[in-house]
Specification:
The chain has a single domain, classed as Alpha-Beta Plaits, CATH 3.30.70. Helix content is 23%, strand content 46%. The protein is built from two helices and eight strands.
Length: 109
């Protein structure tokens, strides 16, 4: 059975060195999204990227120093994502967030 609905994709761009109270920020965000009952979250570690300072960070450098890009994607209905944005605001000291309308397709047996 295929179910479809409208939703919102929340995408956060941070660094793997970003922390919240000593813990990896991406882990804290995903745990809070789960606790909030959001539909799903994925953390993607990038081997290369650059941000607002235009410095390229790559895993090929000998001294990476934990500056590789991390993308967190969370998808749910618009109201659920809007409600979670206060949590994002309290956790993100720096970073970039994008929101986009999506069609959520669930395949269920």
């Amino acid at each position: 059975m295929i179910r479809e609905r409208e939703g919102t994709l929340l995408r956060m761009f941070i660094g793997d060195a970003d922390r919240h109270e000593g813990r990896p920020l991406y882990r804290v965000i995903v745990e809070r999204a789960r606790a909030a009952g959001l539909a799903g979250a994925t953390v993607l570690h990038g081997p290369m990227g650059f941000g607002r300072h235009a410095r390229v960070h790559t895993a090929k450098l000998a001294d990476v120093e934990g500056h590789l890009p991390v993308v967190i994607e969370i998808v749910d209905g618009e109201a659920a994502i809007d409600g979670f944005m206060a949590e994002v605001d309290s956790l993100l000291g720096k970073g970039l967030v994008t929101l986009e309308k999506v069609r959520i397709v669930s395949f269920e047996t």
